[in-house]
Every structure is written in C-alpha cells, then in structure tokens.
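Q&A log
Question type: sequence-to-structure
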Amino acid sequence: MLEVSRNTVRRYLRSNGLLRYERQARRSELDPFKQYTDERVKAATPDSIPATVLLSEIRALGYSGGYSILKGYLKTLRPVVKREPMIRFETESQAS
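Response status: OK
Response body:
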C-alpha cells in the first residue's frame, strides 16, 4: 500500500509528466547588503573578515537581520579549504 490519496494518483496519471512544485524565491533581509559584503570579502582576500565584524558594519548601514543569515551567505563566498591528509606512522617504542 502506498498510502497516497486516490486523487493524487489520478492527478499524476492525467498529467503529461511529473508534477513539480515550483516556489518563487523569497527575498532575504540581506539582499540589499550583498553587494557590500561581496566587495568587503573580495577586498580582504586572501585574509578573511569575521562574520561578526561584517555584521556590525552592515548593521551600521541599516541591516536588521540576524547573524545566521549572514554567516550562511558568507559560506557561499569563501572558498572551501581542503586540508592535506595526515600521514601517520608508528615507530618501535624503546623499552627501558
């Protein structure tokens, strides 16, 4: 048993393809400040600016959103640093 309504099955059978739910992208409170943050991050390259510093700067410009929205956006701007794998080895211990 699929536990799906008959009407749902009927709707899919009558459609020509798969039905997809499309939702319009929502505007973020950060949208007006994205250009400023992009410029600040690029200007600081190769160093990075902490999200708390950027938050205080854009709050001075009128941003009323939260820290987590800014932090999530900054993750998309900063490159992912791949770390070198650690090579482990063992040596014989010296018994006394």
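Response note: The two ends are 70 Å apart (CA to CA).
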